[in-house]
């Protein structure tokens, strides 16, 4: 499943110009607290959720998720978005219970109604150490995939599990290089990871 990027929300709330200015002037990333800027512009957490729910999702994707789950596939989400965004989309499409794990940046709504996002890898404390240059600074999906694979192996007593990885962004290139011989990578044609591969 493709989670909507921060840009979808920023664009949908009419704040693109302001976020571009902040990014250029202050070298900020949307994970640096974009919820504060949206809140200051009078946008509520409900506005953010409404934009997320308006993100186009092909009905065939929903059908594929349900079919894979019915076949017993262990579905997981690995995303450099954030938990609020992902949960909003999953809830909107009735899919939250189909995924055994969501690995992403943490998020919470504070007492003032602002969305606060904490990166998966705390880039304020230092880099996550990935040297490929394709991972966003808030998450090395390759390192996250290694953790998922290790926890899966521990839960199954070391039994090998075949991984089928679907991705579209530059950040999906790193984990694609960590897949094993029996695994599959399904890049989205015409998107950054397709071009990198």
Automatic annotation (TrEMBL):
Keywords assigned by UniProt, alphabetized: Hydrolase, Magnesium, Metal-binding
One term of GO molecular function: metal ion binding
Binding-site residues, substrate: 6, 80
Annotated residues for binding of Mg(2+): 168
Cofactor: Mg(2+)
Keyword Zinc-finger: no
A Pfam match: Put_Phosphatase
UniProt KW Hydrolase keyword: yes
Name the record gives this protein: Uncharacterized protein
Species, as recorded: Oryza meyeriana var. granulata
């Amino acid at each position: 499943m493709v989670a909507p990027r921060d840009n979808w929300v920023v664009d949908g709330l009419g704040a693109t110009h302001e976020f571009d200015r902040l990014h250029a002037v202050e070298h900020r990333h949307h994970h640096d607290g974009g919820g504060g800027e949206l809140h200051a512009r009078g946008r509520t957490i409900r506005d953010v959720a409404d934009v997320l729910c308006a993100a186009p999702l092909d009905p065939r994707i929903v059908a594929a998720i349900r079919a894979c789950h019915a076949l017993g596939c262990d579905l997981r989400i690995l995303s450099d978005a954030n938990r609020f965004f992902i949960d909003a989309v999953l809830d909107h499409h009735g899919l939250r219970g189909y995924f055994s794990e969501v690995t992403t940046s943490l998020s919470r709504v504070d007492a003032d109604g602002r969305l606060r996002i904490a990166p998966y890898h705390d880039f304020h404390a230092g880099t996550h150490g990935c040297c490929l240059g394709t991972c966003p600074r808030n998450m090395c999906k390759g390192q996250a995939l290694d953790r998922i694979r290790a926890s899966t192996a521990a839960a199954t007593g070391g039994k090998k599990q075949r991984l089928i990885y679907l991705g579209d962004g530059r950040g999906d290139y790193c984990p694609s290089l960590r897949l094993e011989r029996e695994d599959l990578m399904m890049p989205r044609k015409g998107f950054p990871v397709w071009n990198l591969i």
